[in-house]
Amino acid sequence: MKKVFTLALVAFGLMMAMPSQAQFKFGLKGGLNITDMSMSKDVLDASNRTGFFIGPSVKFTLPIVGLGIDAAALYDQREAKLKADVENTTGTQITSNTVKQQAINIPINLRYSIGLGDLASIYFAAGPQFGFNVGDKNFDWTKEASYRLKSTNFSVNLGAGVTVINHLEVGFNYNIACGKTGEASVKNVLDNTWEQVSKGRSNAWQISLAYYF
């Protein structure tokens, strides 16, 4: 946790230390998540679901040709439907529940832009993202199956997009979770012991639309 805050403070300090020649723009960004949640055990299966994100964004253009930095504070919601094979007194039963993750995510990306004339440019971006859970952390959908989300998450963004008339941006991004997003437990009722503990990672494809003033 200390490392996450240290990295965030360093990135913020670098942006504040930029020379006066740098251009600053404020905007609003929103988009869709297509969540790809993977589990570490076969007893649990996760399917893809959609979600969304929205929030303020800032963009710095550095006094170096093509280079810049963008950052945002986004309310992010992701969903995944989990299915678990639970053994009980009547045999094996398949149970399912939709897990909803709500977080404030702070992506900080280094970006490189290539001009396509006066009206448009394409950009490539990559950088860390710091997430803070603001929703429910525990999901107990039966007495035998449950899921618990972490309070904080660290991930990495890789993306590209198009900027039109220097204000409107359409972006495509892949958000890669570093470490587990949460942990699922499935109980074997027959011998009253925990049968499986599975670690989950919530990666997401993202499509975004941003407008900078």
**Quick one: overall form?**
elongated
Helical content, roughly?
under 10%
SSE succession? HEEEEEEEEEEEEE
> Which class do the helix and strand fractions yield?
mainly beta
Please characterize this protein's 3D structure.
There is one protein chain. The chain has one helix at residues 2-16; strands at residues 23-39, 44-47, 49-61, 67-72, 74-88, 91-115, 120-133, 138-140, 145-149, 152-164, 168-177, 182-188, 193-212. By secondary structure, the chain is mainly beta. Strands 1, 2, 3, 4, 5, 6, 7, 8, 9, 10, 11, 12 and 13 form a 13-stranded antiparallel beta sheet that branches. It has a single domain (2-212), classed as Beta Barrel (Porin), CATH 2.40.160. The longest helix has 15 residues, at 2-16. The chain is built from one helix and 13 strands. Residues 190-194 have low confidence and may be disordered.
Summarize the structure.
By secondary structure, this protein is mainly beta. The chain has one domain: Porin (Beta Barrel), CATH 2.40.160. The protein is built from 1 helix and 13 strands, in the order αβββββββββββββ.
Topology:
Blueprint: H1 2-16, E1 23-39, E2 44-47, E3 49-61, E4 67-72, E5 74-88, E6 91-115, E7 120-133, E8 138-140, E9 145-149, E10 152-164, E11 168-177, E12 182-188, E13 193-212
Antiparallel strand pairs: 1-3, 1-13, 2-5, 3-4, 3-5, 4-6, 5-6, 6-7, 7-10, 8-9, 9-12, 10-11, 11-13, 12-13
